[in-house]
Specification:
Oligomer: heterodimer
Order of helices and strands of chain A: EHHEEEHEHHEEH
Number of domains of chain B: 4
Strand order of the largest sheet of chain A: 2-1-3-5-7
CATH topology of one domain in chain A: Rossmann fold
Helix content of chain A: 25-40%
Helix content of chain B: 25-40%
Largest sheet of chain B: 7 strands, mixed
Strand content of chain A: 15-25%
Shape of chain B: globular
Number of helices of chain A: 6
Number of strands of chain B: 29
CATH class of one domain in chain A: Alpha Beta
CATH superfamily of one domain in chain A: NADH:ubiquinone oxidoreductase-like, 20kDa subunit
Radius of gyration of chain A: 17 Å
Structural class of chain B: alpha/beta
Largest interface: A-B, 30 and 21 residues
Strand content of chain B: 15-25%
CATH architecture of one domain in chain A: 3-Layer(aba) Sandwich
Distance between the termini of chain A: 38 Å
Shape of chain A: elongated
Number of strands of chain A: 7
Structural class of chain A: alpha/beta
CATH topology of the largest domain in chain B: Rossmann fold
Number of helices of chain B: 20
Radius of gyration of chain B: 29 Å
Amino acid sequence: MAKVKLATVWLEACAGCHMSFLDIDDRILGLLEKVDIMYSPVVDAKEIPKVDIGVISGALGNDEEVHLAKKMREQCDILIAWGDCAVFGGINSMRNFMPAEEALKKAYVDTVSTVNPEGIIPGEDIPQLLPKAIPVDQVVKVDVYVPGCPPDADTILWVFQELLEGRIPKVPAEMMRYD
Amino acid sequence: MKEITLTIDGKVCKGSHGDTILTVARKNDIYIPTLCYLEGLTPIGSCRMCVVEVENNPKLLTACTTPAQDGMVVHTKTETLHNYRKQVLELLFAGRNHFCMYCSQSGDCELQRLAIEHGMDHVRYPFLYSDFENDATHPEYQVDHNRCILCLRCIRVCAEKVGAHTLDLKDRGWNAKVISDLGKKLGESDTCVSCGACAQVCPTGTITIREFAYRGRRSDCDDVVESVCPLCGVGCKIKAYVRTGSIVRVEGTTTDQPDGGQLCYRGRLELPRSTERDRVHVPMIREGVYYREATWEEALSLIAENFKTAKEADKAGALVSSICTDEELSVFSALFKDSLGMRRLDTFDGDILRGFRKGFEPFRQQGVRPFTAAHNILKSDCIVNLCADPDEEAPVVASYMRVAALRNEASLINVSSGKNPFEGITDVDIRLLSPCGDPCLLDSITKVITSLRMSEEDLGKGTEALNDYRNYLEKTAALVNMSVEEVEQVILKLANAKKPIFVLGSNVSKNPAVVQAGVNLAIASRAFFEDGIGIVPLVVSSNSLGTVNTVLAEEPWLGKEDLDFLYVFSTGMIPEDEESLSAISRTKFVVVQTPYLVHPLVNMADVLLPAPAWYERSGHFCTIEGERRRLNVVVPPKGEVKGLASVIQEFASALGVELGSPKAVPCEQLFGSEKAPETAQMVELEEVSL
């Protein structure tokens, strides 16, 4: 039987969800017998290929992330949102209480630890901030939600196993966490 | 109460007429999720979590506010209800900023628990990201309005149990916000008593106690132990949360208890802090300006040696904290009183307790209990505050008084020479012209009421009694510089009250005649409760009453003459008063046994002995809640700390004295209620001086 193709992308988030994925430890070998990781922060691929399962960790905070999320949705059959940032917006939404310009000014000029005498706010050749950081499902349809900050390794593995068995999983109460 | 029968989820359930659907369901072990509901607070049905379906009723009904009716068929677990509840939760998450990953209460949060229980793996509504403030102005508590779900538990507990009514609601809809006073920040509030009841009932991370948030959530704790707060006479029941061997959080019981599950700022904050204080770990002996560590044998034999000489010269004494259990006090009494025949044994708050004891004695001899449970204030319709400052002396009693006055519409009469502690909510404020320790006014009011009653009963002496009534009225008016009409209003309030109650401050009790006059007045105004006469004595600590027949001296002796030997047991929880300290410092040889490095007391010690702290001991307290309450070991003692009883036993052995079994009768027996309080007779006031 052909292996299931998997792509994961790390958008506006810390690396926690992917770390938690690696925390499935040696069980990853068993998983890799059935799954090919085609695209991920842990493999070296430049473009998201056509896959069976796509995973997004992180919220959407700028236009590049929106582009990647749309691309991932196009390229995969089943899309998983990993972690609180992808599901709820998470810690990134802390900037949602002020306009994006103010957030940039705070980050690049106002903070005490910043040395930026000319007050330059980076803007050229880099992605533009969205007005607010938003959960993934506000832009693309999500099939499986796995909340948690990060989700437990066991939960992540369980979700893959369920998908490999041909079921669309819904994280049960005993596995679900928001922190 | 009429019994009703209804069917909930197919189960036949019994309830009483007047029960809500929720009450009947809980009585029958049927779970209905709730969020704003708390037993003991007025149900408001605001969160909509408890919605149920009732057959033949097209609407969803909130179980917490809908009265159960005979024959109702109720469903609590249908798919419609599940979806509706989940939707409510999603709306709560979308409406404010509930981000668990940076909330101190994650894991302790009822909103989070319910969302997980309902399988909320995402929110179908756009988040509003409304910018609410995080009010950090209060030094102990923090109010993060971003996390508020407007369950209004805090507002209700503050109004209904604490009686402070600091919190209320401002604006409507998405902008509705809990505010203090009329829009001040919590730290700037004039009415907040800092009791923390709001934080205890908050289901989310909105109102939090900084220290508790920092030291670990409830779910991280290893153990929860029920015990008693030792800090004032009320002896509130507490739940102490233990984490890695120290108390990280102290909470009251539940809102359905008579005390409303309250604690005051002292109990809530000082108790957990006491586990972090510097301890005396081993016996220490003073050498010049230093202390050196010693063995128990060495320390005890040095103490015994000094004690023997002092005892022979009749210059030995012992001063014991009243924050000792009945059991410990009876061992102290067995050694010092019974075995050694010492007359100099006393407690720090001896003067106050002697006043209460002497004042209560004639009534106690009649077989009635001269006081009643403090929470009976809530049943009273007329409360007289006699020179007490309950907010300082026993803050939970102050809550009872405020709730009685504000919610139960009881009259509140304040009698004091100082500041009125209930400014703004008192019906009458009687200013004393002389300091509080004078029984004349109480005696005079008693006579007015007695003569009024006689004139009403008209046993052939109606006219004479009425003349007496007028005379005493005038006399009373002269004592307080009020007009006769004003005094008459007070008298009528008292005389017409069904269940008046009198709160006696500790500073009046130093004169037993005032206590006696107070009880007389209570009898005259028919302040009778099931368990005793309507007096609430504000004693100093949770087992002050227990010292009355154990370590309390007949007459004061401390400071009368300089002694050669003094054994001092301090719990370090209530600061020692200046007079006691100065008497201790003038003693030649001082033994201080204490759990903490209490300054300046430890500096006066020649021998310093470690002692178990309040949370390392067990036994019983005799509280002014009229209950014997059990103090439990919350954290077992470490190191060379020994139990008080075994130290006393070893000290007795070092002295070569046989320690007999304790003779003192338990406190509740001493203040037993053998006869109904209605049978109590007033006693003639004698000038008893201390």
